[in-house]
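Follow-up to my earlier ticket, as requested here are the two runs.
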Amino acid sequence: MNPEATESHPVFCTIVPPHVLDTLSRLEDPDRSERALRTLEHDALQRTRRRITTVRGMAAPTGAPSDKPNRTIYDAGHQETLPGKKVRSEADKPSKDASVNRAHAGLGATFDLYLKVYGRHSIDDSGLPLNATVHYGQNYDNAFWDGQRMVFGDGDNDLFLDFTIPVDVIGHELTHGVTQHTANLDYYGQSGALNESMSDVFGALIKQYALGQNASQADWLIGAGLLGPNVTGEALRSMKAPGTAYDDDVLGKDPQPATMDDYVKTSRDNGGVHINSGIPNHAFYLLATALGGNAWERAGQIWYKTLTGGELDKDAQFDDFARLTVATARTEYGEGDVLQALQKAWSQVGVPAT
């Protein structure tokens, strides 16, 4: 049991990694470089605030948590003041604003997967209300979970579109809240890459569950539909083929490795948390596709039970997590095909699991 996991440490994560924005900030094109620099500066300020302030969680409902989500959507009106103007509550009819409706639906899709598949009542398992703010800032090229709400920029319609478009982006960010309330993985190095990978895994599962896609039907992309019309690429990341999500003259090339042979040692991006997460991401993809059927079932159950089971230390490395998934699989499914597929997946990405 990891007693420190109960004392949650706030993490500020944005869906567009700092290394991408850093690349953009160095462009000779002043419009693009200035937008990226403003986004980087904003995110750095928010990250500092998360480190030095206590997370003020919203009040959970009294009594037993409901099996229905409690969502509220706000509109920042292109300012950077949160939460903004309330524009849709749980009981309201759909808005005329597509961003409001997408945010509402994405929060609901996240709530549904965690409740209906894993029996979890919202992010904290105690019915935490799910709030979101849309139309944040001017040309803000990111989205984040700040411990109290999801916040979405509209993008710039050049390199990035509206950040409410991909439901897996919403699921990714909210899953950082699940991790914070469970294993509370440190956001640096391999434990940070595991933190990021958890969000990608469950973001992908949320999309697949909402669309009714099995493992072979899914695209295994994170952020598909987010890249703007002037970008050569499919998404921000690929779990199926890390390193292939984009290859663009402006954004650069997707730097994610698929195996430990190409593990990136860097002090940037908190020790490469958005880069090396490709390795456990790929292990999950290999397991889910080897097992077939719905990825949120056997493969997803192994990941969820390992994340929330209380044995995962906050500074866990890839091999620590791999060994715990093997123990979980053995407990849940015995010594058969599931365990063998899991061990093979970790072996294929070069992470020892025994």
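Run two:
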Amino acid sequence: MQSHFIGGAQRTVRDLPIQHREVVRNGGERPLDMNGSYAVGQMYAMEYRLAHPRSPLPVLLWHGGGMTGAQWESTPDGRQGWLWRLLEAGHDVVVCDAVERGRAGWAMFPEIYAEAPVFRSAEEAWTLFRIGHGAPSGDGVGEPFVGQRFPHENFGALVRQMVPRWLGHEAMAMAAYDALLEQFGPCVVLGHSQGGGFAAHAAIRKPHLVRAVVGVEPTGMPVVQEGQQGQQGQEGADAFAPASAIPHLAVWGDHFAHSPQWQKYRAQTDVYWQLLRRLGGRAEVLDLPAAGITGNSHFCMLDTNGDEVLGRVLAWLERLGR
């Protein structure tokens, strides 16, 4: 096991007033000068290497928006997460905290980041993550969907791991993911939500380092511009040709009828998957309810049947020889 801080650049801050603050409790005031150089745009990665891995390809786990790599480590109700299941299956694993999240740290604003962060409330998480109906009771918890597989009694544990996020930092985050791939690739990238979208972009940007993409309810897909889908747009579609040589799998949970927003996200992924297929690629879909696995939330890796879902993903990777 080894931790890494990857990517980033130096930024300089000037002209801030010098404050006089008590920095250490009972230590008295001292000058506090925050002018100077800062590391910005780095990401954090924890590497887990097996003595005898069954696969030569490490699996890189990329978390969703407003989350950290903790979502892969354990579940809200205390079970082992997909990190440990992947190690048991014989894969080396790298768990990441993306730029501005968790142990990657963040920068001052507006001196370095242009804006303040946005935050996700428990109420928004309950409905957006398709755990249940609204009408929260004061702690963000509403009525769970019938058959819900998320351990909703432990919803507060999920809320406690949510972190601030900054909008418009996609290019900075992708640059750090590029550096990560350069360090650990070739690899399999398994991304959830926003991380799934970054994984799809990574297959375009670094196709020689990505051997397979698994998007668990991915968002933020590469945009297929009008004209790229037909014969007239073939030149534009060629930009996606390197990614079409890489197998892609999208995994979708349940309760989509309750979320127009997720219907939209899924439709955007469908458009991109269709383009990959037209280019001769292998872009597959694991629709869990259609496969007889029902009740999953947006966080199927945290759901009580999460190991069964991962088993389907591992079987897909095994069929690919990954």
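The only thing I checked on run two: Residues 139 and 319 are 44 Å apart (CA to CA). Let me know what else you need.
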